[in-house]
Amino acid sequence: MRIDEIIAAKQGPVFSFEFFPPKTDEGERNLRGALAALRELEPDFASVTYGAGGSSRDRTLAITRWLKAELGIEAMAHLTCVGASRDELAATLDGLVEAGIENVLALRGDPPRGETEWRPHPHGLQHSSELAQLIGAHHPTVCVGAACFPEVHLEASDPLSDLQFLRAKVDCGASFLITQLFFDNDCYFRFVEAARFAGIEVPIIPGIMPITNVGQIKTMTSMCGATIPPALLGQLERRPAHEADGAESVAELGVAYATLQCAELLAGGAPGIHFYTLNRSPATRAILSALRAMAPRSRREAAVPALIGPGRSAAATG
Predict the structure, then answer these.
(1) CA–CA gap between residue 242 and residue 75 (Å, rounded)
(2) What are the φ/ψ torsions at residue 268 (nearest 5 degrees)?
(3) Which of 95, 128, 228, 242 is most buried, taking the most CB atoms under 10 A from its CB?
(4) Which long-range contacts (CB under 8 A, 24 or more apart) does 156-161 make?
């Protein structure tokens, strides 16, 4: 089923997970175990990131197919412009459609490892908007999603130009958006309000990453331009970095913070939550189980202006 149809049909929030294709057979076995555990939470869909070329790309297809065919979870494959010509991208897309995949997240992709600047394939695509357009031209029944950046893309000159790029993605066929990770909900609400003002009306699903390792999250945020609120960072850094108790304490704080963050987002009208799982299940299971126990209001109820906090408007709904 198309993800835009899932979002439109569901009265309550949608919950989804993101995984990456492991590089080894052991990693794939561990991932399949995590997927089987998370299946019990009945996610609305799950996505699998894309490695350009070689076995990583093949694993993306295999895991995406397994998600849908064997686990019965609606699946979305990521597709990037990295290192591929138009014809190669079309062939990869053909393989996804032949495998029964109806949803694709269209991304430009990051420069290959060891390179600092983005360079398109000589016969490839420059932007994710072009990829969304290619998908629609070759397979118009495929649902296209795209990424967005509440704290502005690292390569954007300013927030306005970033919104213009985002509008181009939607105009080229993206029917829903998933945000980069963030830890300050005001960033999301301000971003969605600005997007609505810019004429971007598609659902905007917040992407949430539970913090389980301080060093890891510092590295990831430095790479993607996300920020960690000082109060949260201070609490994390008080935990001993190399002791078992410290690691456990970080994970406990990370789960608690993400749970509160998700609850506030849903109460403020977000259409759902997309969890960046890092191929692990315990933190995501704990957070989603708590959210389900809280029985969050439906999006329609949460979107009533009177229920939205100070300084926020109904435009922040997904």
Answers:
(1) 37
(2) -85, 0
(3) 128
(4) 159/194
Please compute Rg for the chain using Cα positions.
19
- Name the nearest CA neighbour of 72 among 35, 122, 105, 124: 35
**Predicted TM-score of the model (pTM):** 0.89
Q: Which of 18, 74, 102, 130 is catalytic?
A: 18
Residue 45 maps to which CATH number?
Answer: 3.20.20.220
Residue 176 phi, psi dihedral angles, 5° rounding: -160, 160
Report the number of distinct structural domains present in the chain.
1
Average pLDDT for runs of 10 along the chain of length 318: 96 93 83 84 92 63 87 93 91 92 92 72 91 96 97 87 96 98 97 97 98 92 92 89 71 95 96 94 92 65 35 38
Query: What is the spatial distance between Cα 111 and Cα 94, in angstroms, rounded to a whole number?
Result: 24
Helix (H/G/I), strand (E/B), else coil: 206? strand
> What range defines the domain where residue 70 resides?
3-316
Decide if 18 is catalytic.
Answer: yes
Can you name the residues that pair with 102 across neighbouring β-strands? none
